[in-house]
Amino acid sequence: MGAVPGLPTHLDLTPYAGRWVAIVRGRVAGVGLSAEDARRLAKRNRPKEEAAVIFVPSESPHGDGDLDPPPTPADRNA
Predict the structure, then answer these.
(1) DSSP code, position 71
(2) Whole-structure pTM over 0.85, yes or no?
(3) DSSP class per residue in 12-69
(4) What does the pLDDT read at residue 4?
(5) Which secondary-structure segment (H or E) carries 73?
(6) Residue 72 reports pLDDT greater than 60
(7) More confident residue, 76 or 16
(8) Beta bridge partners of 53
(9) Partners of 24 in beta bridges
(10) What pLDDT, on a 0 to 100 scale, did the predictor assign at position 10?
(11) Sign of CA dihedral 58, 66, 75, 28
(12) SS3 label, residue 7
């Protein structure tokens, strides 16, 4: 995964592969299947702060080392 501005390099996000993660002050403040879910949880946990929301890619099921893109709403409803 490429560098994300403001995201600590020591933060291990592998447990959140395939999910959206909201980061506040270098910590995971919310996780969800959509960016809005992660942002909403972060706002509930840290109401006075704005979260940076990123998608944590999972490895491709093809085993080719490529990363899967973020899911779209259509993907989740399929």
Answers:
(1) P
(2) no
(3) --GGGTTEEEEEETTEEEEEESSHHHHHHHHHHHSTTSPPEEEEE--B-TTSSSPBPP
(4) 61
(5) helix 73-77
(6) yes
(7) 16
(8) 22
(9) 27
(10) 81
(11) positive
(12) coil
